[in-house]
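Think of the structure tokens as a kind of shorthand, similar to the way a musician reads notation: each symbol stands for something richer, in this case the local conformation of the backbone. In the example below we present two proteins back to back. Begin with the first one, reading the sequence and then the tokens, and try to describe in your own words what changes along the chain.
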Amino acid sequence: METPVIAIELPADLYAELQSLTAQENARDPADMIARLVAAAQEKHVYPQPTPAFQRILERATDLDVDDLSARE
């Protein structure tokens, strides 16, 4: 199974920086470098834990079975 390919346009100066970073990091190609950067960003992204008060609200939340609470009948 082939991996789908998506083409994106980058400003020339940004692409030059990406190529330079690729060489510095001994990555195979710019796409590999982008994958590394995305993985590093995902590792750094941490979802905050809800406060105890907010956690109690979440535990008591009720599904109202309404898609849009602003809808009025």
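Once you have a description of the first chain, move to the second and do the same.
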Amino acid sequence: MFKNMKFGSIEDASILRKFTVLFLLMSIIPIGVLFYFYLELKDSGSIKITEANFSTTLFLIVLGVAVGYWAMRSVLKSLIDITRSNRDALTAILGPEKIQELSEEKNEINVLARSFSEVTSRLEENIKSLEMAKKTLHSVLTRVGQGISSMHDIGSFLDLIVETVVDAFSARVGFLMLVDGTRNNLYLNAVYGVNVGPKSHIKLSADGKPFGEILKGNRPVIIDFLEEAFFKDDHYRALFKTPMLCAPLALHEHVIGILVVGGKHSGLTFQDDEKSLIHNLALQTAVAIENSQLNENVEKTYFETISALALAVDAKDRYSRGHLDRVADYVVRIAKAMQLSEENIKTLRNAARLHDVGKIGIPDEVLTKPAPLTIQEMDMMKKHPEIGESIIRPVRFLRNLCDIVRHHHEKLDGSGYPDGLKEDQISLLVRITTVADIYDALTTDRPYRKKYSFEDASKILRDMRGQLDQSVVETFLSTFNASGQPEQV
């Protein structure tokens, strides 16, 4: 019967149970005295109280009251401690001003109801903040992921990182600075939200304020204030908007730069969760920068290797030796005169250095023949653009050169090779390379003829009106002076 009964310690009981037990204990002695008096009246009709009985009864009653008082005081103290703890917790959640407002309420039920209402409201705000942080993180990761998949160069990727962080943190401006080779200075690499002119104008000491300590400490920091003396000019004033959230770009215990966002639209400062987010993003950005540098070194090695092959072919024929370098110089001159982008100029220069690499697959007796080629030999020679393309196509970063390498012998009227392209099928970069290639061939000695003068070569290029882009021809010829010497472009 008693096996299933559980007797717990009263210390672990609820306040209501403690009160009930203590009330019963306090009631035993008074009830016992009253019961004794009842029995005396029933049996004898009167109550006989001796001095000894009265003293004993009084002592027991006083003892019961004292024990009850101590026990009840202990219970009430526990209740007060719980109330104080709850009040402190509410103060931490709602703030002292709201607690003071609630304390003026006389109705305890209203106080309790309003307290629960305020706590619930704050919890809902915290949930919204967590959801916003989750959406911010998802947005950052999504945009960064898209940037990685479509990234053409590390500069575009870093611009995307800065733009994404500024938007995600509702900031006004963001920028990324990298440590230079001497590790003494920081130079501006990417910026979003403000126009500061040429990036090279912005340079800071890697040891001075405000970023020196951040770089040395290798941890994210929130800067709420900058001294007026720090702002050297309007560029700095526009760039450094407080509060600023700064995170070092750390890589293998070395800091290679710093990522900064500043100027909250809300006017508030940045939070710890934002500090944690930008810190993790800065670490990943540092890894991306290192990978880019490694890829650049590998790509440079590949390019130099293939260029060496092309130069080896170029060196076989003493008549055309130096052809690749001259064509590279010509295409750059044309591109600059046409005000093409730096990216297009780079593509033209690299393609010109590799455009004849396919001749490595042509037999030497054909390649160096000191006489005009036969039809069969010419057909063999016409294979070199396709061979050249097949050599560079497997190398991912050289694929943008494939169009020029394959089609630099195409003509606007479709008489070129290997694909017989016409008019708009031939890109501007290919047209530029074709003009430069033909001009160099005309103005160099061949075993079967002497080189043409500038005037004669110019006439031949203009006579090829249906085959060559005359706007490119005229732009090219305008880069020479009257005596046929190159002008400064």
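Compare your description with these statements about the second chain. Confidence is low (pLDDT under 50) at residues 1-7.
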